[in-house]
Amino acid sequence: MKLYTYFRSSAAFRVRIALNLKGLKPEQVFVHLRKNEQGSAPYRGINPQGLVPTLEHDGRSFGQSLAIAEYLDEIVPEPPLLPARAAERARVRQLADIVACDIHPLGNLRVLRYLRDRMGQNEEAVADWQRHWIALGLEAFEDLVAGSSDTGRFCHKDKPTLADIFLIPQLANARRAQLDLAPFPTLLRIEETALALPAFADALPKNQPDAE
Fold it and tell me: Which end of the chain is flanked by fewer CB atoms within 10 Å, N or C?
């Protein structure tokens, strides 16, 4: 098993958490996003999107953090990343998708570069764009978990799921964007609980071999 990763990528951060929860230790290959190594012909031969992470396993390559996390959950069922009941699985997927589908794509490095380089936006405008979309998504996430009896120590009950795997890296992104997180007390409480686990703490960007 091999993971193509970059320490600051929140998508790679998610996969590192999932791997840690499953007790898996793949070989790591570092792809420096700021140096555009993801756009090289050799890497695009592995992942045509030119994005990280990519997981290689059993002769196949997989991109997209959500697909990778669910793949890991299927090949290593314990501990499960999704609840047993269909309605509960849907809730966890909804929370994860707020990050994966609504927040993250609008703040991805290539989107921010396009705003600067092609749309002529200055740094202040780009930062405002990023904070706006992160805040909008986190407001909904906070409302969903704060108002649900299904929320426990983690986003769903008392064990980490895909929802936590996606939330924690997004909160790290929010801090880098200098977003005030005070309006999200439930999310901060969950983050504190998650980061007390080695699976989450060891996956932090600052704890990666390629950290700068």
Answer: C
